[in-house]
Amino acid sequence: MDDTNKISPSELMIVAASRELKGNRTVFVGVGVPNIACNLARRSHSPEMELVYESGVFGAQPARLPLSIGDPTLVSGATSVVSMADLFMLYLQGGLIDVALLGGAQIDRYGNLNTTVIGDYNKPRTRLPGSGGACEIAINARRIFMIMRLSKRAFVGKLDFMTSPGHVDGGDTRRRLGMPGLGPEKVITDKGLFTFDNPEREMMLVELARGETVESVQAAVGWPLRVADELREMLPPSAAELEIIREQLDPQGLYR
Amino acid sequence: MSANNKLITMREAVERYVTDGSTVAIEGFTAFICFAAAHEIIRQRKRDLVLCRLTPDLIYDQMIAAGVAAKLVFSYLGNPGVGSLHCIRRAVEQDVPRPLAIEEYSHFGMVGRYMAGAADLPFFPLRSYTGSDLPAVNDLIRFVESPYGDGPIAVVPPLKPDVTFVHAQRADVSGNTHLWGLLGTQKEVAFASKKVIIVVEEIVDEDVIRRDPNRTLIPGLIVDAVVHEPYGAHPSYVQGYYDRDNDFYLKWDEWSRDQSTTEAWLDEWVYALPDRAAYLEKLGKGTLDRLSPGDLKADPINYGRYG
User: Fold this and answer.
1) What is the pLDDT of residues B18-73, one digit of tens each?
2) Please, what sign has the CA dihedral across residues A52, A57, A61, A64?
3) CATH number of the domain bearing residue A71
């Protein structure tokens, strides 16, 4: 393989996320990598999957890669287009979303996310976008998958700001706080895949990407990492999956 | 002309309805963002406005760079699909060109605020904010006990802007408005606001509205003025009329990186031009042609004739 055929970190995450989405009927989608992952799932193993966007679109069938979640290509050919009030009240809070894909600038061991500020809120070093719909999505969607590049800057011991709750303080905190959704279930990164499948609901390494080791992953995580007893390999993308990504979903390579 | 003719120019609308210090909402979620109104507000050098919008987008980035705002009420501060809003970040991080107060929610919180404003409710309850730090930095996000014993629930207060500009495809001269595509919060913000300015691509006969009443998102009843401003949402888009100018959104990321290049853009594209028609002429037919979508028509439906 020459360099142009090398699998990029984004492609690895897109394919891993797409495979994890199998079996879900309704998926709440964001732009960029999550959007490509969902469209790959729909064009490969899950043609019946309904893509839901916070802009008010249910059952989108985008004919081109949307730059934003409000792209007109999401409207044309969709099953239904509703007001944002209906989307948040009836679809999200009504309990109709199986899984939502989220990301952020910072994540902690319980899958809590920061998309608001780096530094102090009132005098931020970096002002980030804020919640958008993420806070209520994190609370109400049945399950949450995170897609994020693994780095020590992002996987931190303590968030600068908690925008969207994951498992909060771990254990059964979510249930005690009365949150309808089950919270973060997977974190898909370019170096490995994590679950929260333990009583403490703490992020746990379960799959390693090729060429990575527990030590190399730990080096990019800001807390002592919990590791599953049996580590599996994150299977690389197939030729068919790469072809759909490169020729249909992102022919310009914007997200490579 | 009928007595109900509310047609005025954008210049008149801004002169008449936008006063210094007032609370202004120009909504539209990615679509229907009325840049024509924003540019006229900048041109008339309005000051100390409280700007409300879920996604401040380039429209408020430009207004805040021009110094019209004292405060921003919002839920997502980004250039959608591109990255940061550099002008608003400059205002928040460095007080340039002037300090900007912020009041921050989530999307559902902002939607709920408009709903409570529109329906004249004391607050709107929603399942959000639990565990989040947002209530700690915004005292207006609170929790109340359910009177039915279901535990605490987050609430947000009503938002009733002094004036809103709502862009749409078409309206009649009295402001009965057809809108299709991403509905966003156009209906909620219109019903919540004290004054409503409708801005449309096309003015149509009342008959056109009455032949498809399900498409009437906003009734003339709550409309104060109607402005006919084709391409008034560029570089945002209007479903079926023109595409989003994604190139502009990408280029703004470069232009807006410092205050001087931003001001040069404002000089060239806003202050130096008298109105939207001049903006479109400067933009050129090539750009407008590039943004023209092909046709994808819905099948006609039958409302039926009864009596």
Assistant:
1) 999 999 999 999 999 999 999 999 999 999 999 999 999 999 999 999 999 999 99
2) negative
3) 3.40.1080.10
B90 lies within 8 A of chain A by CB? no
Q: Is residue A113 part of a domain?
A: yes
Residue A109 lies in a domain: yes
pLDDT tens figures, A13-55:
999 999 999 999 999 998 788 989 999 999 999 999 999 999 9
**How far does CA B171 lie from the centroid of its chain?**
17
Q: Which residues pair with A124 in a beta bridge?
A: A119
Q: How many domains are there within chain A?
A: 1
When scoring B79, B182, B244, B252 by the number of chain A Cβ atoms within 10 A, the one with the most, hence best to mutate, is B182
Q: Is A54 a catalytic residue?
A: yes
Is the pLDDT confidence value at A216 over 70?
yes
Tell me if B111 sits within 8 A of B52, measured CB to CB. no
Count the residues in chain B: 307
Instruction: Please tell me which of the candidates B77, B81, B137 has its beta carbon nearest to residue A31.
Output: B81
Residue A256 has a pLDDT of 85
Q: Collapsing DSSP states into helix, strand and coil, what is residue A221?
A: coil
pLDDT, tens only, B218-227: 999 999 999 9
**Class of the CATH-defined domain B10-106+160-290:** alpha beta
* Chain B CB contacts of A132 below 8 Å: 55, 75-76, 78, 106-107
| Residue A167 lies in domain | 3-189+236-249
Other residues' Cβ atoms within 10 Å of the Cβ of residue A67: 20
Mean pLDDT, residues B111-120 taken together? 98
Q: Give tens-digit pLDDT for A148-191.
A: 999 999 999 999 999 999 999 999 999 999 999 999 999 999 99
Domain boundaries, chain B: 10-106+160-290
Phi, psi dihedrals of residue A123, rounded to the nearest 5°: -140, 70
Note the residue count of chain A.
256
Q: Which two tokens stand for residue A150?
A: 């693994």
Does pTM surpass 0.80?
A: yes
pLDDT above 70 for B15: yes
Position B3 scores a pLDDT of: 63
Q: Do B92 and A127 touch (CB under 8 A)?
A: yes
Contacts of B298 (CB under 8 A, 6+ apart): none
With a threshold of 0.85, tell me whether the complex ipTM lies above it.
yes
Cα distance from B185 to chain A (closest Cα, Å)? 6
The CA distance from A24 to A96, in Å, is: 11
Chain position carrying tokens 């997200």: A255
Contact residues on chain B for A170, CB-CB shorter than 8 A: none
Spatial distance between the Cα atoms of B213 and B199, rounded to a whole number of angstroms: 19
